[in-house]
Every structure is written in structure tokens, then in C-alpha cells.
UniProtKB/TrEMBL annotation:
Residues 251-278 form the PLD phosphodiesterase domain. GO terms for molecular function: phospholipase D activity. This is phospholipase D. Keywords: Hydrolase, Lipid degradation, Lipid metabolism, Repeat. GO terms for biological process: phospholipid catabolic process.
Length: 380
């Protein structure tokens, strides 16, 4: 359960605070950490009778160990993955293909037991004692997100349709360089916080959000071998190809959830992605020309956008923009999200864990080069 502490009152005020100058408040956060390392398979010495299939699975275990890391072993691995891909076509006539594997049956059984006592047979129960703060438009929302991220101690979960690493969560950017999203994540990873991110892998011929740049920029924040490098994990999903989607025949679908969970204590859900074009305020300014100096600019580079004139272009170069600010106005973005403190945060985190593990199994089973940590939750 979650225990509310007096210090939260200051934090709740911080969730809705506007631009301010001065020291940041100290935010006590009690951490309920559910992240665990990948579970190892353990076999007791007194293991009982094995089936014939188990006995003949690896008749030469010593030879199998010697083959690891050799060309013969690589050929076998490729053959297994190729067989899996081809086997996906069998799912066209197997209507139960999402519930017939051992891990799926195990998860279904757990879900059934958990749902038994829940109203409407839902995966989560009704929970009282939550504090909810709504945000209309992006200014106050992104400020609140920056506060929550900065005070992360253990874990950060992010799921977005589009995530722009170079997004400034506080404006004007000239005075808030340290509040750029990628810089916050870098600081937290170096401090030991585990960061897990899921972004939608777009159909490149139809969308310009360039999730490949998102992955490259985020995963490259800390050089390999440096402290914190292993603390950032990012997945793009789904992989749009015939072999992977043959079983469902749904090629142009998208992850459209926007979720942020910090330390299982604070969560944000709603309609605002952490990406270009979403930061706005209630006045919805159309112009961003400042003869007095660039330090007053609010919408830098790609963030000044008008889809009625042209879509985003070359988003990997965040400073560039083919839309002339002197000729065109920006298109405002009116949206709503909310912040939550309380027991419901656990259920939002659990939902992220389920999504992460689903994407992990889907990608790791089909691509031998993928190595992704598994998260341990209540259901999965």
C-alpha cells in the first residue's frame, strides 16, 4: 500500500506550478520498488521424472556448450528464429494463438485469479485515496513532468506514441537548457535510476516522427562502458513486416498510450506526448518572433509547427525548421493530461510492465540480436 506523507502537500503544489525562479522544493518520495533482475531458472537436485521430450532435447550437453559462440551455434540460432517467423503464418488459422504458449497460459491464469474479486472483472480493483491533478495544455503539464523526473530515485517508465529527446520541458529554452528531456534522463541514468521507454515504431512511408532517431539519441546519451549506460532501455514496437504481422493481418496500427510512472509513486496519463508541437499555454500564441533577442524564443526549431502548412520534416535536426516564422503562424495544440499520486499509480505501472514484457517477447523471440530486460510485476 501507499503511505501519504506530509511533504506531498508541497509536491502537489509543485505539480501545478508555473514558471518560477528559486530553489527547487525537497520532495520526499517513498519508493515501492518492483523492478527485479531477470529471473533465473532453478532446478532442484531432487527433480522428479522427466518426460521423453526433456530427455532427448540435448543428448550431448557438453558438445552443446562447446558449440556456443561458434558458427555452428549461430546457424542453429538463425534456423530457430526463421522457423518461428515461418510458423507465424500458421496463426492465420489458429484463433487462439495469443493464449496457447506456456507463458501465455501462465499469465492468463494469474489474471483470472486477480480479476475474480474485481468489479467488472477488471485487471485492477477500485482504489480510494488517490490525488489527481488535471492539466489543460502543455505548459503546466510539462513543468510537472520535469519536477517528477528530476526527483526520480529508482525507476522511470515512459510510453509514448512519439518522443522527442530534444524537447524542452520548461520555457524559454535559452534559460532552461538543463530541462531538456534528454538531459534530464541522462542525469537520472548516471545517478542510478532505471529508465524503460516504449515508443511507437512508425510506418516511415506515412509518418515523419522518426522513432529510429529517438532510439539512437536516447541510447547514445551515455557512452558504452560509462556509469549509467546500462540504466537506459528503449524499445520500438511494432515491427511492420509481413512475417511478423501475418498472424493478425493488422499492418497500420499504433501504440497511442501516453504514460509516465516515476518510482511507483507518481504517474501521468492522458493525451500529451513528450514530443514537438505539444507544448502550449492557454493563450495559444501564434507568433514567436522576438526582435529583442533569441533568448525570448518560446518555440525553438522543430517545435514551431503548423501541420496545415507542412508536416514535420527531418526531426532528427531539432534546430532546423522549414516553416518561416515571419510568414506563418504556428498551429496551437489544445490537450489534456493528468497527474496521479496514490494507489492507482501501482496499477498504471503494472499496465506498463505488461506492455513492456509483451513487446519484449515479441521482439526477442523473432530477433536473436535483441536482448531486453524483463520486468517483474504482479500479473506477469
Amino acid at each position: 500500500m501507499f503511505a501519504m506523507v506530509r511533504g506531498r502537500k508541497r509536491y502537489r503544489k509543485g505539480l501545478g506550478v508555473r514558471h518560477r525562479i528559486g530553489p527547487k522544493p525537497c520532495l520526499p518520495m517513498q519508493v515501492t520498488l518492483l523492478f527485479k533482475p531477470h529471473r533465473q531458472c532453478q532446478v532442484s537436485e531432487g527433480e522428479g521424472h522427466r518426460s521423453l521430450k526433456e530427455k532427448v532435447a540435448h543428448p550431448f550437453p557438453d558438445l552443446r556448450e562447446k558449440l556456443k559462440g561458434t558458427h555452428l551455434h549461430d546457424v542453429k540460432v538463425k534456423a530457430v528464429h526463421t522457423t518461428h517467423k515461418i510458423g507465424k503464418f500458421h496463426n492465420l488459422i489458429n484463433k487462439n494463438h495469443r493464449h496457447d504458449e506456456d507463458h501465455e497460459k501462465e499469465t492468463d491464469e494469474k489474471r483470472s485469479r486477480i480479476r475474480e474479486n474485481h468489479r467488472f472483472d477488471s485487471f485492477a480493483p477500485e482504489r480510494n485515496g488517490n490525488m489527481v491533478k488535471w492539466y489543460v495544455d502543455g505548459r503546466d503539464y510539462f513543468w510537472a513532468v520535469s519536477e517528477a523526473l528530476e526527483h526520480a530515485k529508482e525507476t522511470i517508465y515512459i510510453e509514448d506514441w512519439w518522443l522527442s529527446p530534444e524537447l524542452f520541458l520548461r520555457r524559454p529554452p535559452f534559460y532552461n537548457q538543463e530541462w531538456r528531456l534528454d538531459q534530464i534522463l541522462k542525469r537520472k541514468a548516471e545517478a542510478g535510476v532505471k529508465i524503460f521507454i516504449i515508443v511507437y515504431k512508425e510506418v516511415a512511408s506515412a509518418l515523419t516522427c522518426n522513432s529510429q532517431h529517438t532510439k539512437k539519441a536516447i541510447m547514445g546519451l551515455i557512452p558504452e562502458g560509462k556509469p549509467g549506460n546500462e540504466n537506459i532501455k528503449l524499445m520500438r514496437h511494432p515491427d511492420h513486416n509481413v512475417l511478423e504481422n501475418a498472424s493478425d493481418m493488422t499492418f497500420y496500427w499504433a501504440h497511442h498510450e501516453k504514460i509516465l510512472v516515476v518510482d511507483y509513486e507518481v504517474a501521468f496519463i492522458g493525451g500529451l506526448d513528450l514530443c514537438y508541437g505539444r507544448w502550449d499555454e492557454k493563450q495559444h500564441p501564434l507568433a514567436d518572433v522576438h526582435p529583442s533577442g533569441i533568448q525570448n524564443e518560446i518555440f525553438p526549431g522543430q517545435d514551431f509547427n503548423n501541420n496545415r502548412i507542412m508536416d514535420f520534416h527531418s526531426v532528427e535536426d531539432w534546430k532546423s525548421n522549414q516553416l518561416n516564422k515571419a510568414e506563418y503562424g504556428r498551429m496551437p495544440w489544445h490537450d489534456v493530461s493528468m497527474g496521479i499520486i496514490g494507489p492507482c499509480v501501482y496499477d498504471i505501472a503494472e499496465h506498463f510492465v505488461l506492455r513492456w514484457n509483451f513487446c519484449k517477447r515479441d521482439k526477442q523471440t523473432c530477433q536473436q540480436s535483441v536482448r531486453i530486460d524483463r520486468l517483474i510485476g504482479r500479473i506477469d
